[in-house]
Protein backbone atom coordinates (compact mmCIF):
# COMPACT_ATOMS: atom_id res chain seq x y z
CA UNK A 1 0.00 0.00 0.00
CA UNK A 2 1.31 3.44 -0.91
CA UNK A 3 1.41 5.74 2.13
CA UNK A 4 0.87 9.42 1.36
CA UNK A 5 2.42 12.27 3.33
CA UNK A 6 -1.02 13.09 4.69
CA UNK A 7 -1.17 9.70 6.43
CA UNK A 8 2.29 9.96 7.99
CA UNK A 9 1.04 11.28 11.28
CA UNK A 10 1.07 10.13 14.87
CA UNK A 11 -2.41 9.24 16.09
CA UNK A 12 -3.77 10.34 19.44
CA UNK A 13 -4.53 6.63 20.02
CA UNK A 14 -1.75 4.40 21.34
CA UNK A 15 -3.59 1.11 20.78
CA UNK A 16 -6.61 0.22 18.69
CA UNK A 17 -8.66 -2.94 19.03
CA UNK A 18 -9.63 -4.60 15.75
CA UNK A 19 -12.57 -7.01 15.74
CA UNK A 20 -12.42 -9.43 12.81
CA UNK A 21 -12.91 -13.05 11.85
CA UNK A 22 -10.62 -16.07 11.88
CA UNK A 23 -11.69 -16.86 8.31
CA UNK A 24 -10.28 -15.13 5.24
CA UNK A 25 -13.71 -14.86 3.69
CA UNK A 26 -14.84 -15.62 0.17
CA UNK A 27 -13.69 -12.33 -1.35
CA UNK A 28 -10.16 -11.05 -1.76
CA UNK A 29 -11.36 -7.58 -0.82
CA UNK A 30 -11.65 -8.74 2.80
CA UNK A 31 -8.01 -9.78 2.83
CA UNK A 32 -6.92 -6.58 1.09
CA UNK A 33 -8.77 -4.50 3.68
CA UNK A 34 -7.05 -6.36 6.54
CA UNK A 35 -3.59 -5.74 5.10
CA UNK A 36 -4.41 -2.12 4.29
CA UNK A 37 -5.70 -1.53 7.81
CA UNK A 38 -2.53 -3.06 9.26
CA UNK A 39 -0.39 -0.73 7.15
CA UNK A 40 -2.58 2.19 8.15
CA UNK A 41 -2.01 1.45 11.84
CA UNK A 42 1.73 1.20 11.24
CA UNK A 43 1.81 4.53 9.40
CA UNK A 44 0.03 6.18 12.32
CA UNK A 45 2.31 4.51 14.89
CA UNK A 46 -0.59 2.66 16.51
CA UNK A 47 -0.28 -0.68 18.29
CA UNK A 48 -2.77 -3.48 17.65
CA UNK A 49 -5.02 -5.34 20.06
CA UNK A 50 -6.94 -8.21 18.45
CA UNK A 51 -8.42 -11.66 19.02
CA UNK A 52 -5.10 -13.49 19.03
CA UNK A 53 -5.64 -15.82 16.09
CA UNK A 54 -2.97 -16.45 13.46
CA UNK A 55 -5.35 -17.36 10.64
CA UNK A 56 -7.93 -15.56 8.55
CA UNK A 57 -8.50 -11.82 8.53
CA UNK A 58 -7.11 -11.43 12.05
CA UNK A 59 -3.93 -13.22 11.02
CA UNK A 60 -3.44 -10.88 8.07
CA UNK A 61 -3.95 -7.65 10.01
CA UNK A 62 -1.73 -8.80 12.88
CA UNK A 63 1.03 -9.88 10.50
CA UNK A 64 0.90 -6.53 8.69
CA UNK A 65 1.21 -4.58 11.94
CA UNK A 66 3.98 -6.86 13.22
CA UNK A 67 5.92 -6.60 9.95
CA UNK A 68 5.66 -2.83 10.23
CA UNK A 69 7.42 -2.86 13.58
CA UNK A 70 4.47 -2.03 15.81
CA UNK A 71 3.56 -3.99 18.94
CA UNK A 72 0.79 -6.58 18.64
CA UNK A 73 -1.25 -7.91 21.56
CA UNK A 74 -3.40 -10.95 20.88
CA UNK A 75 -5.97 -12.06 23.46
CA UNK A 76 -7.48 -15.49 22.97
CA UNK A 77 -9.47 -17.95 25.12
CA UNK A 78 -7.62 -21.16 25.93
CA UNK A 79 -10.38 -23.22 24.33
CA UNK A 80 -9.86 -21.51 20.95
CA UNK A 81 -6.07 -21.81 20.84
CA UNK A 82 -6.03 -25.20 19.01
CA UNK A 83 -8.51 -23.90 16.43
CA UNK A 84 -7.30 -20.33 15.77
CA UNK A 85 -3.54 -20.68 16.38
CA UNK A 86 -1.64 -22.50 13.66
CA UNK A 87 2.06 -22.19 12.98
CA UNK A 88 4.05 -19.22 14.26
CA UNK A 89 2.24 -16.43 16.09
CA UNK A 90 3.26 -12.78 16.05
CA UNK A 91 3.62 -10.31 18.87
CA UNK A 92 2.38 -10.98 22.37
CA UNK A 93 -0.30 -13.64 22.85
CA UNK A 94 -2.24 -13.67 26.11
CA UNK A 95 -4.41 -16.66 26.97
CA UNK A 96 -7.57 -16.00 29.00
CA UNK A 97 -10.20 -18.22 30.56
CA UNK A 98 -13.23 -17.48 28.36
CA UNK A 99 -14.84 -15.18 25.78
CA UNK A 100 -16.11 -12.73 28.38
CA UNK A 101 -12.63 -12.17 29.76
CA UNK A 102 -11.30 -11.88 26.21
CA UNK A 103 -13.64 -8.99 25.38
CA UNK A 104 -12.98 -7.28 28.71
CA UNK A 105 -9.20 -7.50 28.25
CA UNK A 106 -9.39 -6.28 24.64
CA UNK A 107 -11.43 -3.26 25.73
CA UNK A 108 -9.16 -2.60 28.71
CA UNK A 109 -5.99 -2.37 26.63
CA UNK A 110 -7.49 -0.35 23.74
CA UNK A 111 -8.12 3.34 23.12
CA UNK A 112 -10.56 2.87 20.22
CA UNK A 113 -12.27 0.13 18.21
CA UNK A 114 -12.42 -0.92 14.55
CA UNK A 115 -14.40 -3.74 12.95
CA UNK A 116 -13.30 -5.63 9.84
CA UNK A 117 -15.35 -8.31 8.06
CA UNK A 118 -16.15 -11.28 10.27
CA UNK A 119 -18.94 -13.52 11.45
CA UNK A 120 -21.48 -13.41 14.25
CA UNK A 121 -18.72 -13.21 16.85
CA UNK A 122 -17.28 -10.06 15.28
CA UNK A 123 -20.71 -8.46 15.12
CA UNK A 124 -21.39 -9.40 18.75
CA UNK A 125 -18.08 -7.87 19.88
CA UNK A 126 -18.82 -4.69 17.97
CA UNK A 127 -22.33 -4.35 19.38
CA UNK A 128 -21.08 -4.97 22.91
CA UNK A 129 -18.58 -2.07 22.87
CA UNK A 130 -21.28 0.16 21.36
CA UNK A 131 -23.60 -0.88 24.20
CA UNK A 132 -20.89 -0.13 26.76
CA UNK A 133 -20.51 3.35 25.27
CA UNK A 134 -24.29 3.83 25.39
CA UNK A 135 -24.30 2.92 29.09
CA UNK A 136 -21.37 5.22 29.84
CA UNK A 137 -19.08 2.34 30.82
CA UNK A 138 -16.38 3.70 28.50
CA UNK A 139 -15.79 6.84 26.45
CA UNK A 140 -13.63 5.25 23.77
CA UNK A 141 -14.41 6.00 20.11
CA UNK A 142 -16.24 3.40 18.10
CA UNK A 143 -15.25 2.16 14.62
CA UNK A 144 -15.25 5.45 12.73
CA UNK A 145 -11.63 6.27 11.84
CA UNK A 146 -11.21 4.03 8.81
CA UNK A 147 -11.11 5.66 5.38
CA UNK A 148 -14.40 5.22 3.57
CA UNK A 149 -12.82 3.13 0.81
CA UNK A 150 -11.64 0.61 3.40
CA UNK A 151 -14.99 0.36 5.15
CA UNK A 152 -16.93 -0.26 1.95
CA UNK A 153 -15.51 -3.76 1.54
CA UNK A 154 -17.96 -5.32 -0.90
CA UNK A 155 -20.80 -3.39 0.69
CA UNK A 156 -20.53 -4.73 4.24
CA UNK A 157 -23.54 -4.83 6.51
CA UNK A 158 -21.71 -2.88 9.21
CA UNK A 159 -20.70 0.68 8.32
CA UNK A 160 -18.76 3.37 10.20
CA UNK A 161 -20.34 4.34 13.51
CA UNK A 162 -20.18 8.12 14.03
CA UNK A 163 -22.75 8.20 16.80
CA UNK A 164 -23.88 5.54 19.21
CA UNK A 165 -27.26 4.21 18.03
CA UNK A 166 -29.91 4.50 20.70
CA UNK A 167 -33.17 2.61 20.36
CA UNK A 168 -36.00 4.90 21.55
CA UNK A 169 -38.46 3.43 24.04
CA UNK A 170 -42.19 3.35 23.54
CA UNK A 171 -42.66 7.04 24.38
CA UNK A 172 -39.95 8.02 21.82
CA UNK A 173 -37.81 9.66 24.50
CA UNK A 174 -34.19 8.44 24.30
CA UNK A 175 -32.78 7.19 27.60
CA UNK A 176 -30.38 9.53 29.37
CA UNK A 177 -26.82 8.35 29.69
CA UNK A 178 -24.87 9.10 32.85
CA UNK A 179 -22.25 11.14 31.00
CA UNK A 180 -25.01 13.38 29.57
CA UNK A 181 -26.58 14.25 32.94
CA UNK A 182 -25.98 17.93 33.64
CA UNK A 183 -24.14 18.42 36.92
CA UNK A 184 -21.80 15.47 36.43
CA UNK A 185 -18.11 16.53 36.34
CA UNK A 186 -17.07 17.65 32.88
CA UNK A 187 -20.50 19.02 31.92
CA UNK A 188 -21.77 22.59 31.60
CA UNK A 189 -24.13 21.95 34.50
CA UNK A 190 -21.21 20.79 36.64
CA UNK A 191 -19.31 23.97 35.78
CA UNK A 192 -22.27 26.13 36.81
CA UNK A 193 -22.68 24.20 40.07
CA UNK A 194 -19.03 24.75 40.98
CA UNK A 195 -19.33 28.45 40.25
CA UNK A 196 -22.48 28.68 42.38
CA UNK A 197 -20.57 27.03 45.24
CA UNK A 198 -17.46 29.18 44.93
CA UNK A 199 -19.05 32.65 44.71
CA UNK A 200 -21.16 32.47 47.95
CA UNK A 201 -18.24 30.88 49.80
CA UNK A 202 -15.93 33.67 48.66
CA UNK A 203 -18.45 36.32 49.69
CA UNK A 204 -18.93 34.64 53.08
CA UNK A 205 -15.24 34.51 53.97
CA UNK A 206 -14.62 38.01 52.60
CA UNK A 207 -17.42 39.55 54.67
CA UNK A 208 -16.40 37.68 57.81
CA UNK A 209 -12.67 38.48 57.78
CA UNK A 210 -13.33 42.17 57.07
CA UNK A 211 -15.41 42.41 60.25
CA UNK A 212 -13.02 43.53 62.98
CA UNK A 213 -14.31 41.49 65.93
CA UNK A 214 -15.00 38.14 64.21
CA UNK A 215 -12.13 36.60 66.22
CA UNK A 216 -14.14 37.11 69.41
CA UNK A 217 -16.10 33.91 68.70
CA UNK A 218 -14.52 30.54 67.98
CA UNK A 219 -17.47 29.62 65.74
CA UNK A 220 -16.71 32.57 63.44
CA UNK A 221 -13.06 31.50 63.15
CA UNK A 222 -14.19 27.97 62.30
CA UNK A 223 -16.55 29.39 59.69
CA UNK A 224 -13.69 31.29 58.05
CA UNK A 225 -11.57 28.14 57.88
CA UNK A 226 -14.40 25.90 56.63
CA UNK A 227 -15.67 28.31 53.99
CA UNK A 228 -12.11 29.09 52.84
CA UNK A 229 -11.59 25.37 52.29
CA UNK A 230 -14.93 25.18 50.47
CA UNK A 231 -14.05 28.09 48.17
CA UNK A 232 -10.63 26.63 47.29
CA UNK A 233 -12.14 23.20 46.63
CA UNK A 234 -14.95 24.56 44.45
CA UNK A 235 -12.55 26.82 42.54
CA UNK A 236 -10.22 23.89 41.85
CA UNK A 237 -13.05 21.74 40.50
CA UNK A 238 -14.38 24.69 38.49
CA UNK A 239 -11.00 24.95 36.76
CA UNK A 240 -10.91 21.18 36.15
CA UNK A 241 -14.44 21.22 34.68
CA UNK A 242 -13.62 24.22 32.49
CA UNK A 243 -10.49 22.49 31.18
CA UNK A 244 -12.39 19.26 30.49
CA UNK A 245 -15.03 21.15 28.51
CA UNK A 246 -12.40 23.16 26.64
CA UNK A 247 -10.44 20.13 25.45
CA UNK A 248 -13.59 17.97 25.23
CA UNK A 249 -12.19 15.38 27.60
CA UNK A 250 -14.38 13.17 29.75
CA UNK A 251 -13.97 13.01 33.53
CA UNK A 252 -15.82 9.68 33.71
CA UNK A 253 -13.19 7.92 35.75
CA UNK A 254 -13.96 5.97 38.91
CA UNK A 255 -11.07 7.41 40.93
CA UNK A 256 -11.81 10.99 39.83
CA UNK A 257 -15.52 10.72 40.67
CA UNK A 258 -14.70 9.04 43.97
CA UNK A 259 -12.28 11.85 44.87
CA UNK A 260 -14.87 14.50 43.95
CA UNK A 261 -17.53 12.73 46.03
CA UNK A 262 -15.36 12.45 49.13
CA UNK A 263 -14.16 16.05 48.78
CA UNK A 264 -17.70 17.37 48.41
CA UNK A 265 -18.83 15.35 51.41
CA UNK A 266 -16.04 16.62 53.67
CA UNK A 267 -16.18 20.29 52.66
CA UNK A 268 -19.98 20.49 52.75
CA UNK A 269 -20.13 18.85 56.19
CA UNK A 270 -17.54 21.26 57.61
CA UNK A 271 -19.31 24.25 56.04
CA UNK A 272 -22.71 23.21 57.36
CA UNK A 273 -21.39 22.59 60.87
CA UNK A 274 -19.52 25.91 61.01
CA UNK A 275 -22.45 27.84 59.51
CA UNK A 276 -24.90 26.30 61.99
CA UNK A 277 -22.66 27.15 64.96
CA UNK A 278 -22.07 30.67 63.66
CA UNK A 279 -25.80 31.18 63.12
CA UNK A 280 -26.45 30.25 66.76
CA UNK A 281 -23.72 32.59 68.02
CA UNK A 282 -25.00 35.42 65.82
CA UNK A 283 -28.54 35.07 67.19
CA UNK A 284 -27.21 34.90 70.76
CA UNK A 285 -25.01 37.99 70.64
CA UNK A 286 -27.71 39.88 68.77
CA UNK A 287 -30.29 39.05 71.47
CA UNK A 288 -27.81 40.04 74.19
CA UNK A 289 -26.92 43.28 72.38
CA UNK A 290 -23.25 42.26 72.40
CA UNK A 291 -22.51 43.64 68.92
CA UNK A 292 -23.47 46.72 66.98
CA UNK A 293 -26.04 46.57 64.21
CA UNK A 294 -23.49 46.79 61.40
CA UNK A 295 -21.38 43.91 62.71
CA UNK A 296 -24.39 41.68 63.36
CA UNK A 297 -25.62 42.34 59.83
CA UNK A 298 -22.24 41.34 58.43
CA UNK A 299 -22.19 38.18 60.54
CA UNK A 300 -25.68 37.28 59.30
CA UNK A 301 -24.62 37.90 55.69
CA UNK A 302 -21.54 35.70 56.05
CA UNK A 303 -23.59 32.90 57.62
CA UNK A 304 -26.29 33.15 54.93
CA UNK A 305 -23.69 32.95 52.13
CA UNK A 306 -22.12 29.92 53.83
CA UNK A 307 -25.49 28.14 53.90
CA UNK A 308 -26.05 29.00 50.22
CA UNK A 309 -22.65 27.55 49.32
CA UNK A 310 -23.41 24.40 51.32
CA UNK A 311 -26.79 24.06 49.62
CA UNK A 312 -25.13 24.38 46.18
CA UNK A 313 -22.66 21.58 47.03
CA UNK A 314 -25.47 19.12 47.80
CA UNK A 315 -26.47 18.46 44.14
CA UNK A 316 -22.82 17.84 43.18
CA UNK A 317 -22.36 15.37 46.03
CA UNK A 318 -25.61 13.52 45.24
CA UNK A 319 -24.90 13.30 41.49
CA UNK A 320 -21.32 12.13 42.00
CA UNK A 321 -22.37 9.56 44.60
CA UNK A 322 -25.14 8.34 42.29
CA UNK A 323 -22.80 8.09 39.29
CA UNK A 324 -20.40 5.83 41.20
CA UNK A 325 -22.98 3.06 40.82
CA UNK A 326 -22.61 3.16 37.02
CA UNK A 327 -18.98 2.02 37.05
Number of discrete domains: 2
SS-derived structural category: alpha/beta
Q: Name the beta content range.
A: 5-15%
Shape: rod-shaped
Strand order of the biggest β-sheet = 4-3-2-1-5
The total of helices stands at: 10
The biggest beta sheet reads: 5 strands, parallel
- Specify the helix fraction band: 40-55%
Number of strands: 5
What would you note in describing this structure?
The chain contains ten helices and five strands. The protein has a five-stranded parallel β-sheet. The two termini are 42 Å apart. The chain is an alpha/beta fold. The chain has two domains: 15-151, Rossmann fold (3-Layer(aba) Sandwich), CATH 3.40.50.450; 181-326. The chain is rod-shaped and about 95 Å long. Helix content is 54%, strand content 7%. The model is unreliable at 1-7, 144-165 and 167-172 (pLDDT under 50). One of its GO terms (cellular component) is cytosol. Homodimer and heterodimers. It is a multi-pass membrane protein. GO terms for molecular function: cytokinin riboside 5'-monophosphate phosphoribohydrolase activity.
Amino acid sequence: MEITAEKMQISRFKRICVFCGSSQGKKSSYQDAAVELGNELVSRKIELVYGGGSIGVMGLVSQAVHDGGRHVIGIIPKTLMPRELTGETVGEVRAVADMHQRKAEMAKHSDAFIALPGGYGTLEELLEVITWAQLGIHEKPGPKILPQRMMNVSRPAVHPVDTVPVAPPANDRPPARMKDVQGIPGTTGGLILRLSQFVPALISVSVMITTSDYRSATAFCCLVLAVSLQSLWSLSLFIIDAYALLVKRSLRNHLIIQCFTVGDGITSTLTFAAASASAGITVLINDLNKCNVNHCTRFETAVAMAFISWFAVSPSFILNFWSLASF
